[in-house]
Design goal:
2 helices, 5-stranded mixed β-sheet, mainly beta, 45% strand, Neuraminidase, 3 domains
């Protein structure tokens, strides 16, 4: 029979183990008010003090795009569209002269209520899913090969059509108080992710939709209290962050949400940082796009007071501090090992499996932690070979690491 003291010691031991595991999840952002230095896994609980910021003015848009709604930055041009009732046309803006330098007309489309554009490595997508009254049954996305945007001069193209519906919507009578409007989406890993503009509850719902042509049911995968109407989204695939743009209903105050440190497409599962643009000299903010790893363009429609215009936004003050290697956490399940038969003194052949897909980088560090070699890579499948040129690396002991979205997997090797 176990004694009371042994049972008590067992209880203390188990409590200690449970306490240790409990400390592994928490807020991992040092800028949050509830930062937990012991946490190694972000549980999405980070809370922040209010932030007020006014992005600097960049330039006014031509009058032809006074109802700008959606932005992408491609081939050093800013592309935009007009919303409901406008021409079925994409407009390319020269960011130096601020003039329209190209028009791409979509011959087989009608601009019922175009609200957003986004792109991936192969296609540009036009979201014809504006649904102010909640009574549309013809929601669609038009897909255009990016090759059609690369030339010069005006151009006409046919688009592929992606039709979809929301399975949760059963009432199409029409109302100003519903949750099935949408003005924001991004493309990621063969899917389109739609962020709804909920006039009913001021939340935004996240739907997933195949990016292939056809008829699809959008899948609801999450919701978030955005405390306002979301009107645009931009995905930073290099850093795996999403910026949502919107404005507070009826008072028109613009805001941003930065979503970061999430897993996969659980965009609402990581940190959510709000930035209010309380004194921005505009009204209806409708478009946002990524320029480089930290900088964005924001556009707003014209109003009786202001012309349509563009602002610049730099996200670094709120997310750049998380790039340090001290904040890297293990990439669960991933493996990195050496192919001893193929590796030699001038090259290192790595076998990488179960790693995160997308843009990554490979670092080689010496015994002091100094990075002696770094190369960007794109992970496209679960298991693959990667050859790294090591001819300029001296003899010694090193660590090779694969890094993606602040997650890391490493392996020691000697040369």
């Amino acid at each position: 029979m176990r004694t009371i003291s042994s049972i008590f010691l067992t209880f203390i031991f188990l409590a200690t183990i449970l306490s240790t595991f409990a400390q592994q999840a928490g807020c991992t952002d040092p800028l949050a008010t509830n930062f937990n230095a012991a946490a190694v896994e972000n549980d999405g609980s980070c809370r922040y003090l209010p932030v007020f910021h006014n992005p600097p003015f960049a330039f006014e848009l031509p009058a032809k795009v006074s109802e700008t709604s959606g932005l992408v930055f491609y081939h050093n041009k800013l592309w935009t569209i007009n919303d409901s009732g406008g021409d079925a046309t994409l407009y390319a803006i020269d960011t130096a002269t601020h003039e329209i330098v190209r028009r791409v007309n979509v011959s087989n489309a009608v601009n019922v209520d175009w609200e957003e554009i986004t792109m991936d490595q192969n296609y540009l997508y036009i979201g014809d899913f504006g649904n102010n009254r909640g009574n549309r049954k013809d929601l669609a996305v038009y897909r255009i090969d990016l090759a059609h945007l690369a030339g010069s001069g005006d151009y006409t193209v046919e688009a592929e059509k992606i039709r979809f519906h929301y399975p949760e919507q059963i009432d199409f009578k029409g109302s100003n108080n519903h949750n099935f409007d949408c003005e924001a989406f991004v493309s990621y890993n063969d899917y389109l992710y739609l962020f709804t503009k909920n006039r009913g509850d001021q939340y935004t719902q996240l739907y997933r939709l195949p990016s292939a042509p056809g008829k699809h049911a959008a899948s609801l995968i999450g919701s978030f209290n955005s405390v306002g109407l979301v009107t645009a989204a931009a995905l930073n695939t290099e850093r795996m962050e999403i910026v949502l743009l919107g404005y507070v209903q009826k008072v028109w105050t613009p805001f941003l949400w930065i979503l970061f440190d999430f897993e996969g497409d659980d965009f609402f599962g990581g940190n959510k940082r709000r930035i209010d643009l309380a004194n921005l000299s505009t009204t209806q903010t409708e478009g946002i796009c990524l320029i480089d790893s930290m900088n964005y363009f924001i556009s707003s429609e014209s109003s009786p007071t202001f012309s349509s215009r563009v602002f610049r936004f730099n996200a670094a003050p709120w997310i750049d501090h998380l790039d340090t290697n001290s904040r890297l956490r293990p990439m669960k399940g991933a493996l990195i090992r050496l192919d001893e038969a193929a590796s030699d003194s001038s090259k290192l052949v790595l076998i990488i499996s179960k790693a995160r897909t997308g843009k990554s980088r490979v670092d080689i560090s010496d015994a002091t932690g100094k990075v002696v070699y770094s190369v960007p890579v794109i992970i496209e499948k679960d298991a693959f070979y990667l050859e790294v040129d090591t001819i300029r690396i001296p003899e010694g002991k090193f660590i090779v690491s694969l890094i993606n979205n602040r997650r890391i997997v490493s392996q020691e090797f000697a040369k």
